[in-house]
Predict the structure.
Amino acid sequence: MQSVSVLRPFVECLDVLELLALSEETTLPDIDKGRSHFAMPKPVSFRYFKTSPEIIQLAVMLYVRFPLSLRNVEDLLHERGVDVSYESVRYWWHRFGSQFASQIKKRRAGVMQSSNWKWHLDEVFVKINGERHYLWRAVDHEGEVLESYVTKKRDKKAALKFMKKALRRYGSPNEIVTDKLRSYSAAVKELGCSAKQVTKRWANNRVENSHLPFRRRERAMLRFRRMHSLQKFASIHASLHNLFNSQRSLSKRSTFKLNRDAALTEWRSLVIS
C-alpha cells in the first residue's frame, strides 16, 4: 500500500483536471493554429456506459499519465466525490486507452514534418514473467515518441521490422542516430540508409532520457505479464506523453501555461460528440 504522500503531488493537478474534464461550461483557448487545418477524427463513443464520459476519460488519463496504481486512482476519484471501483478503472483503460491513443496519433501525425530531421533509435530490456524482451523506441530530436515495438529478440529481423513501421508512418528522416548494435547497421544497410546512420558517443542521449517516464510507470505497474499488454501500454503511454509533455524547463511560464491549456483542450475534445 502506497503512503498518502505519494498521492499528494497529484492532488493539485486533479483540481485543475476536474475543472477541465467534469465541467461542461469551462472554455479554454483554441488549439494552436498549426493543428487546426487538419480534419478531426470521429470522437470516441461511450454508448451503453452509465458513467459520465468525462469521468472515464479523467480516470484513464490519471492512470496512464502518472505513476499511480489502480487503487490510487480510485482513492483520488473518491476524494472528489466519484465512487468507482479500481476494477472499473482497469476496464476503462483497457477499453478506451487504445482509442484515445489512436485519436491523438491521427491528430499529431500530420503536423510532425519536422520529425524527419533526426531520429534517435534505441531498445530497452523488459522482463515478462522472468523472460527478457526488448522494447524498441524511436524519438525525434525534440523527444517526441514516434514508434514503440516489442520483440523477443534484437536481431536484424526485429530491427528491420521496427524501422519499417516508423518509416511507413512518418517517412524517411535526414539522420538516424543509433548505438553500435550490429542489428541497426544491418537493417539500415538493407533499407539503403547507411549514409544517414550516426553512431557517435553521447549522440543518442535524447532517446536514453526518453525511457525514464516509461520506466517510472513500469515500476508502478509492477511490470508486465504478457507481450500484448506491454505493447498496448507502451503505445498508449507514448501518445499521452507526447500530448502533455511541454518541456517546461525550456520555455517561459506563460508559454508553458498556453501549451498546457492547448494540450488539455485537445485531450478534452476526444469525448465531445
Remarks:
- The longest helix spans residues 86-109.
- The domain at 114-225 is CATH 3.30.420.10 (Nucleotidyltransferase; domain 5).
